[in-house]
């Protein structure tokens, strides 16, 4: 039997009685899981569980063992000492004094297994246009979750005390309620704003508020994304039928000004929770009148996909221009990169349709101590050294006042009527490798961050860093660099090299060369068209025309275009390389070097 990792806790309930914990179906599932593990490994708990074996010939755990008696034992131990149970003729449990330590271990393991689950509290509560009413609804969810945490901790401690009082000497206020809460409602979407072929969308609940309970830590089955999402120009919505809409939630988000409905199966709610730190949630009232620009369904049954490997990510284009992204229900896609990058690919496809240029890169406003300010965009694929260079620049505190990140990973360029090239962002947060952050930074922001697999290679953190108003504001660009992480600096390859020729610049930018750093399944020196496998490569023919137009306009408007050698992929220069690049950039910004 496979046990679900995600626990959905009713958020409408006030938690005040221990029976709500000990009579829950979740407890029996956890006990069943512990029994199956004990049977397989013959661990310390195995002899204890054998006391409750009723029919070893049965296939199902709840038929082989008397789970109800184990539940009643825990209920009795919440009120009575173990010695009292053994001495009393009222109870019919096996004599357990000789199993005291094993029984305590069982309680510990039950508590720890509960805490290892992805725990979410869902509360159906009508959206209100009144901001004060909305806050009261959020506070109500917070209180119910706080009460649940106190109740779980109280039951756990009381049972341990009644087994052996000497075990409880240090009280740790361990997170044991929901890690995230979702307040949901169904928007009253007007008929003219509905998508005719997507009836399933209007049978689901939509999230209008997310409540996070830090520190939020999720452990997922995968820590890498692989491949490029296929794009197919034909409709798919008329073939989609989601049979159990109660197991799904819709997370409506803005990616810049594009409205995308992210439809998520419950086993991947950890991915959905990450959206709260990365994107702006849509104004719920606007859903009544506005059709989505894109739809992303995360966790489709793999049998739905026509080609076996399409479950890794495929995007269809409806006849009305709506893009629909799909990934399958599989452990390999249990990684936030599949959430973030598919959303951004849908955004980029829309941008290309609008004859604008999507950019896989970072944009920062760099303020110097002398009062000068510059907007620097650095383009490059994952691991190219964009964030590392900007972080190194921010640490040169004697000369740099501040570095404000306006775009962390993906944005788009537009040309204003006067010929000025401006950039727009997409995200209000950053999804970054823990190893790539300044030491201690992620932990200084622990009360706001979401950590993913912090114990393994390519550990990630989702950190909010900006507000929506900043990323949707058009920002003029002063410098536009390609991040080269694979070439070692020498006399012929300086840290910064500028281009005066459009063709030469396009050659470097379009090759998208990069030394892979293990953030995806790629290894070694790789090439990705325009460093952007998220829309640009799928629409390459059209993108090439757009890219030439924008590169010509950039140079014509005196934006300084060049290569920035970060050396992040050069062995031995992982730390020093971005610092050297930052120091060289600072010389140009201060006017100590001419372009």
Rg result: 27 Å
Shape annotation: elongated
> What is the class of the largest domain in the CATH system?
Alpha Beta
Distance between the termini: 65 Å
β-strand amount: 15-25%
What's the architecture of the largest domain, going by CATH? Alpha-Beta Complex
Number of helices: 16
Class by alpha and beta content: alpha/beta
CATH topology call of the largest domain:
Phosphoenolpyruvate Carboxykinase, domain 3
Q: Mean of residue pLDDT?
A: 93
- Largest sheet, if any? 11 strands, mixed
Range of helix content: 25-40%
Low-confidence stretches: none
Number of domains: 3
Count of strand segments: 26
Give a quick set of tags describing it:
Phosphoenolpyruvate Carboxykinase, domain 3; 595 residues; alpha/beta; 26 strands; nine-stranded mixed sheet; elongated
Structure, explained:
This protein is elongated. The chain folds into three domains: 4-161, no CATH class; 178-352, no CATH class; 355-427 and 469-588, Phosphoenolpyruvate Carboxykinase, domain 3 (Alpha-Beta Complex), CATH 3.90.228.20. It is built from 16 helices and 26 strands. It has 595 residues and is α/β, with parallel strands linked by helices. Strands 1, 2, 3, 4, 6, 7, 8, 9, 10, 11 and 12 form an eleven-stranded mixed beta sheet that branches. Strands 13, 14, 15, 16, 17, 21, 22, 23 and 26 form a nine-stranded mixed beta sheet that branches. A four-stranded mixed beta sheet has the order 5-19-20-18, with helices on one face.
